[in-house]
Specification:
The complex is a heterodimer of chains A (270) and B (305). By secondary structure, chain A is mainly alpha-helical. Helices cover 71% and strands 0% of the residues of chain B. The chains are: A mainly alpha (270), B mainly alpha (305). At the A-B interface, α1, α3, α4, α5 and α6 of A face α1, α2, α3, α4 and α5 of B.
Amino acid sequence: MNPALRWLREHLVLLLGLGVLAYTFIPIAVVVLMSFNDPATRNVYRFDGFTLDNWLNPCEDPAMCEALGLSLRVGLSSTLVATVIGTLAAFALVRWDFFGRSTSNLVIFLPMAAPEIVLGSSLLALFVQAGFAGQLGFWTIFIAHVMFCLSFVVVTVRSRLAGMDDNLEQAAQDLYATPAQTFWRVTFPLVLPGILGAALLSFSLSFDDFIITNLNSGNDTTFPMYVWSVARVGVPMQVNVVGTLMLVISLVIVLGGELNHRRRMRSVRG
Amino acid sequence: MATVNPIVEPAVDAVDPGAAGETGRRRGPGAYLLMAPAVIWLALFFLVPFYSLIATSLYDPSGSDQAGWEMTYHVGNYATALRDYWDSLAWSLFYGAAATAICLVLGYVVAYAIAFKAGRWKNLLLVLVIAPFFTSFLVRTLSWQLILADNGWVVNTLQFLGILGEDGHLLATPFAVVAGLAYNFLPFMVLPLFASIDKIDHRLIEASSDLYANPVVGFFKVTWPLSLPGVVSGTLLTFIPAAGDYINAQLLGNTNTTVIGTVIQLQATTANQPHLAAALSTTLMAIILVMVVVYIRRADTEDLL
């Protein structure tokens, strides 16, 4: 067989896979490109010329930055709460045997199996029935976000804990470490990457949520809601700056974590 | 790769929550203290709302936000909701199913390539799978709007090739909605598939080729059955959010194909018909639950065969 053909045959699946991956980056490339766009008019969404203005004046529309601020506040606070209580639950589920364990597992899994529109409309029904219809805003968004982030935190930390070898902890105890010392010096550092991964996931879920938030936010506007509201009249190019920044920041965190992990693995093998 | 796990794990674990080593678990009341905050939060803001939702769906339709709502166990709301909006429900299920089918084909190729062919680039490629997922969902979808626009290069190319007629367009068609959904939910398919395919023992595939199975037969007799758990969780994780989504339908579709998410959103807010929104939400959830149960059962039996 022709060597070129054979090479193609051997690498066909890889090439197809890379092709699909490349296709998922087309819209991202457009977002990055548009963040440098100098549009002739606001409602024509087309690349007219290169400029750094969008990056230099991110808050040209103050409403966008206000929405961004709310999204950051909601994202950070709900991530903090969801990560803490989700991690506690993950420890209980992996390390303890208790009555109601499988029911708890089910209750934690279910929110991930419900479409957002159902979660959002049922929360709204609760808030309205409880008499909070007029007070929808930061707190109702926060409650909703902790709710849907929780399951993902539990599942992430649980998988990290479940995959952990307990030999190290037993070794620590054999060397007369107290349970508290064992936990803080051995267990916690080992689980920490899982907890940080869960926090990152939780923040990006919260920051990106639209459907549930849109039902439970009253008059407050988060960043995705802002984008939605301006989508019809023409999106300011600064929205693409935010999209690009989100991508860059998360890639730096993820790749940085990966590199750090590799370096440590190398020094351990050393 | 801690950040990859979350999407992989839910369904994998959900199938068998007790899988993690049964030995050496502690007993005692401590577990309840650790569980309490999470369980109470989910009970109050996930389980109780379902009760509120069902209660709201049975309100008397004569009510209004000004006059108040009266509970008359008006089951007729479901009939009204289904009579008026069955087509939206059907569109949502169709869009969800079509996007899931496309994701399964594309996602399988990606997951297979990463698991079996990527070698030491495995982790980097996994990061690339989730990278687009980190840019805002809405911004990504708006980007599709631009790509598929009537004077964009995709439409121009297709018109040049004669695939699309001179006055043909992609934006505001069901095709654009399915393409957008398939794009947005692809990582939900790839990650569980990867988790399953990555675990397959290569020797089994080699054995099948030693026994004179050609690669296609080998794939369908060995690789595919062993990857079924990933197929099941991937299709569920894609179908459920895709069927409830209305962002793609609103930004990329047209007004003739309104999806159920749009209807629920409007009825619950601007249209002031919370009982209809609640009835439709409950119906959607019920349909999805039934589908999930039937599907998992069927997948299990096939797995046993």
